[in-house]
Amino acid sequence: MTGAPPALEVIGIGRRFGGLVALRDVSFTVQPGEVIGLIGPNGAGKSTLFEIISGNRAPSYGTIRYFGQDCTRTPMHQRRRDGLCRTFQKVRLFETMTVRENIAVAARQTTQPGGDWRTDVASVLERLRLDTQADRLPAEITLADRKKIEIGRAIAGHCRVLLLDESLSGLTHPEAEDLIREILALNQSSGITVVVVEHVLSVLAAMVKRLVVLHNATVIADGTPAEVAHDRQVIQAYLGTRQSALG
Amino acid sequence: MDMPIPAGRAIVVQPRPGFKSLLPVLAVAAVAILPALPFVNPYVQAVVVRALIFIALGQAWNIVAGIGGLLSLGHGVFLGLGCYVTGILFNEIGLPPWFGVWAGVLVALLVALVMGSMTLRMRGVFFALATVAVSLACDQLARHFVDLTGGDSGLALRFLGDSLWAAQSRSPTPFVYAGLGFVVAYYGITRIILTSRFGLEMRAVRDDETAAAASGVRVFRTKLLGFLVSAAMTALAGGLYMQFYQAIDPESAFGLGQAIQLQLPALIGGLGTAAGPIVGGALMIVLSEVTNWGSTKLNLVGVDVLVYGLVLLMVVLWAPKGLVGMLSRRRVRR
Fold it and tell me: What is the chain B residue with the closest CA to A87?
């Protein structure tokens, strides 16, 4: 990588909910253009960390840097305007709006000066092959396409880092493969940095070159899928026995 | 949305441009010629004015509740402020309502700003409860400052007879046109908001605040702005209310009954639509008059209110998205 600042720096993040420690001194870095996976068993703290990175929740301590700038106290809407985009674990669309309007909400906030939000919306619809559904309501379309709409809304306008929260869950194998292709194409054609949260290691292994593993509120491994899959702590966390966590 | 629709795309709702675009014009023309018709007496005109005032108030509430999804149960506060400030300034210093009403709007905006700043970060029922609390406080203040507000018995305007300067008239005819002007203007404002970026943001916040913020929408600012626009529109319509009724009292301004009346046009007609409060308000008044007439003819005191309530209940049960919403859905099915 060059001397450019990392896309995302998570520095010593901690979060408590009363007596419960959800995250403890979590640190890792994501370089621009990287596609990384953030994994861990249920209750590991992935969702809390995701909420903190996206700005929907404040950490108890620690710092989040976005392309070198401290954004720990920056509200979620401002982070989105700065290009830090996210989806939700349970798809959250504007149900009374058409697919086109869903994407337009974000495009109208984030289209860069000199750009045209209508063009942005049209290109997102075309890129994700949603243009034939553009005037439908979200309730009228499949889960796979609902997930695509959410991704479309996240990348519309200005997006530099895309945080995907279990976007593959609930999809059939071909649907998941299709979505993975779309995400990787986004990364390669637009240079968007991607952080994917999943709890199934095998799903992510085919998609990313690097995995960060959370367990019991802290990072227990950070490496390639192969390294992580054979990591003793990861195997213990996932299987409780000494096998490959990839199964 | 004014976005281009790709060629060859099937649109879900196919509007019938001819009749649909003519309908508002026909409705305005029908109300405009009403006073000139020989069989329309002052009583009927007064009923029309009542309808127009409640439609305008419903349109104002529709902005914050229908488009913005904020359940303001105390919107009577802004109606009351519009009425009281206009009336007090006229009675005490002789300021004509043409100017006094803007002072009412200003006071309403200030109150809305304070209310909104304190409550709009809350979610769910807290905002609704806070608006009720402010209503109750205003009710007590209006009853307490007797010298200024007339206390429990209310405030009556000094009546000057037919006077353009004082915006007073013995005949309801000028108020038909004033009311019509309000409804047309508020319809236009609603249409503009619905197709604007601000309207898109309000609808996004209504549907899902967190997803809206994740899309870059400044949620609190959007809610506050919607609340302010609605409060100003309500207070402005309050000025018309005051000039037409010539009096206001704490119950009519800040009472729960009034707050519910303000909500009915949009709830019956269709929340979040431009035409909904017009359809709902018109139906409300027609229904109220018919049931009132029927109970008087049959000498059954109180039955009108019962029938009125039952019919409204049936409308809400059959058309939970309002009459306009129901008609749109039927058109989609076809």
Answer: B214
Contacts of B1 in chain A (CB under 8 A): 98, 100-101, 104
pLDDT tens-place string over residues A163-181: 999 888 888 888 888 888 8
Q: What is the Cα–Cα distance from B183 to B277, expressed in whole angstroms?
A: 10
Backbone angles phi, psi at A38, to 5 degrees: -115, 110
**CB contact residues (below 8 A), chain A span 18-57, against chain B:** 54, 56
Please tell me the total count of domains within chain B.
Answer: 1
Query: What is the pTM (predicted TM-score) of this model?
Result: 0.88
Q: What is the pLDDT of residue B86?
A: 96
Q: What is the CATH number for B283?
A: 1.10.3470
Instruction: Sort residue B160 into left (φ over 0), alpha (ψ -120 to 50) or beta.
Output: alpha
Concatenating the DSSP letter of every residue in B183-228 gives HHHHHHHHHHHHHSHHHHHHHHHHH-HHHHHHTT--HHHHHHHHHH
Identify each DSSP E strand in A31-97 by its residue range.
35-39, 61-66, 69-70, 84-86
**pLDDT at res. B13:** 45
On whether any CB of chain B is under 8 Å from the CB of A129, the answer is: no
CB contact under 8 A, B12 and A76: no
pLDDT value of residue B300: 77
Q: Where are the domains of chain A?
A: 1-83+160-247, 90-159
Question: From the first residue on, what is the mean pLDDT of each consecutive set of 10 residues in chain B (334 residues)?
Answer: 40 54 85 87 92 95 94 91 96 95 97 92 81 92 93 92 90 95 96 96 96 96 97 97 95 88 88 92 86 80 75 77 74 50
Q: Any bridge partners for residue A64, and if so which? A: A10
Distance to chain A for B211, nearest Cα, Å = 6
Asked if the structure places residue B203 within a domain, the reply is yes
B1, B204, B216: residue with CB nearest A110: B216
Q: Range of B309's domain? A: 38-333
Q: Which of B3, B200, B213 sits opposite A76 (nearest CB)?
A: B213
Which fold does the domain A1-83+160-247 belong to in CATH?
A: Rossmann fold (3.40.50)
Residues of A160-186 as b/e, b for ≥16 C-beta within 10 angstroms?
Answer: bbbbbbbbbbebeeebbeebbebbeeb
Please report whether residue B150 resides in a domain: yes
The dihedrals phi and psi of B323, each to the nearest 5 degrees, come to: -65, -40
Structure tokens at B157: 């305007």
Is B204–A97 a contact, with Cβ atoms under 8 angstroms apart?
yes
Q: How would you list the strands of the sheet with A218-223, edge to edge?
A: A84-86, A161-165, A193-198, A35-39, A210-215, A218-223
Q: Where are the beta strands (DSSP E) in chain A?
A: 8-17, 20-30, 35-39, 61-66, 69-70, 84-86, 161-165, 193-198, 210-215, 218-223
A-B contacts at Cβ under 8 angstroms: 97
